[in-house]
Write a structure and sequence with these properties.
There is one protein chain. By secondary structure, this protein is mostly helical. It has 13 helices and five strands. The protein has helices spanning about 20-35, 50, 60-75, 90-100, 105-110, 115-120, 130-140, 155-170, 220-230, 250-260, 265-270, 275-300, 305-335, and strands at about 10-15, 40-45, 80-85, 150, 185. The protein has a three-stranded parallel sheet. The protein has a two-stranded parallel ribbon with strand order 4-5. Strand 1, helix 1 and strand 2 (about 40-45) form a beta-alpha-beta unit. Helix 10 packs across helix 12. The longest helix is centred in the last third of the chain and has 30 residues, at about 305-335. Bound molecules: tryptophanyl-5'AMP (TYM). The site of tryptophanyl-5'AMP has 26 residues, from strand 1, helix 1 and helix 7.
């Protein structure tokens, strides 16, 4: 149906677990928005089923789901050009994930670094959902026969696993072209935005220190303060990218500046090379505030009309189901499930 007129089908998801960070914005959502400008079908999902792989307070989850939808809209995702919905409203995600639980191998999941990081030392006590999380992610992508998956660097391994699951399914059932091999799209200056407190750790919503990240809901004062206090070294900025070698914090701030301004890191250093951080940080803070403030203002406005957000999610779920239902039905048929009603 719609597939024929689009050259690519894009799918990506974000978990509704707390505030979106500048890392989520630059690594993912900003790029989701840019992808709407092509002749591609774009499908973006609030992955609430993934969220509950770690404990979520039900009221808080409902709120976070709507807030993330408001953030999507405030960043420029347009329900007239993209399908926007929350995962649990399209039950085929969970249904296909079950099939993939039976395709993926234990050894594959044992290699997932995100599981190791999240489970930490307390592996025996995490949910089984956390362990099979990547199978659900593979289901999200393959349920739409998506061809491209824009993500940050940290999700690359999960998209690679998705490719392995697709290949094994196609091979086991003798359907060579049924599931496509989706490509991870990891592009731009900020595919891995680092913590402002430690240039070796990624910026994350779950970091205990709020000073380590910029949230899309932070006001101008908070943003300026966090950037002013960001960890750096005592040297001035180099005038070439090679000079960032071994300077993780400096590199991170330059990359953030590049991603927000649309310039390359080279161009940023051509302009700011030789300056001390006491000069570069205020410029970065101004740029960040100018980029983020309109988003947080718009989010607040959108959260004033929750019924409208729910309507958008409902409409998006209907559109998503139109694509997902026939693909799941075909999958069941391939697997040998009798469907007699
Ligand atoms: P999540 O919710 O952790 O993050 C959402 C997106 O933000 C990117 N990201 C970052 N990018 C750059 N720098 C950072 N510091 C940073 N932190 C996060 C992530 O790479 C991601 O693209 N498993 C996924 C959600 C998901 C999904 C999917 C993604 C579920 N199903 C299907 C793609 C396709 C996740 O936990 O993202």
């Amino acid at each position: 149906m719609t597939q024929a007129v689009h050259t690519r089908r894009i799918f990506s998801g974000v978990q509704p677990t707390g505030n979106l960070t500048l890392g989520n914005y630059l690594g993912a959502v900003k790029r989701f928005v840019e992808m709407q400008d092509h002749d591609w079908q774009t499908i973006y999902c609030v992955v609430d089923l993934h969220a509950i792989t770690v404990w979520q307070d039900p009221e808080q989850l409902r709120r976070a789901t709507r807030e993330l939808t408001a953030a999507f809209l405030a960043c420029g995702l347009d329900p007239a050009r993209s399908i926007l919905f929350n995962q649990s409203q399209v039950p085929e995600h969970a249904q296909l994930a079950w099939i993939f639980n039976c395709v993926a191998r234990l050894g594959w999941l044992n290699r997932m670094t995100q599981f190791k990081d999240k489970a930490g030392k307390d592996r025996e006590r995490v949910s089984t959902g956390l362990y099979v999380y990547p199978n659900l992610m593979a289901a999200d992508i393959l349920l739409y026969h998506a061809t491209h998956v824009p993500v940050g660097e940290d999700q690359k391994q999960h998209v690679e696993l998705t490719r392995d699951i697709a290949a094994k399914f196609n091979n086991d059932y003798g359907v060579p072209d049924f599931f496509p091999q989706p490509e991870p799209v990891i592009e731009g200056a900020a595919t891995r935005v680092m913590s402002l407190r430690d240039g070796t750790k990624k910026m994350s919503k779950s970091d205990p220190s709020d000073m380590s990240r910029i949230n899309l809901t932070d006001d101008a004062d908070a943003i300026s303060q966090k950037i002013r206090k960001a960890r750096t070294d005592p040297e001035p900025l180099p005038s070439e990218v090679a000079g960032l070698e071994g300077r993780a914090e400096a590199r991170n701030l330059v990359n953030i500046y590049a991603a927000l301004s649309g310039l390359s890191a080279e161009a940023v250093l051509a302009e700011h090379g030789g300056k001390p951080f006491s000069e570069f940080k205020p410029a970065l803070a101004d740029l960040t505030v100018a980029s983020i403030s309109p988003i947080s203002a718009k989010m607040r406005e959108l959260m004033g009309d929750v019924a409208e957000i729910d309507r958008i999610l409902g409409k998006g779920a209907e559109q998503a189901s139109e694509i997902a239902e026939p693909i799941l039905a075909k999958t069941y048929e391939i697997v040998g499930m009798v469907r007699s009603r």
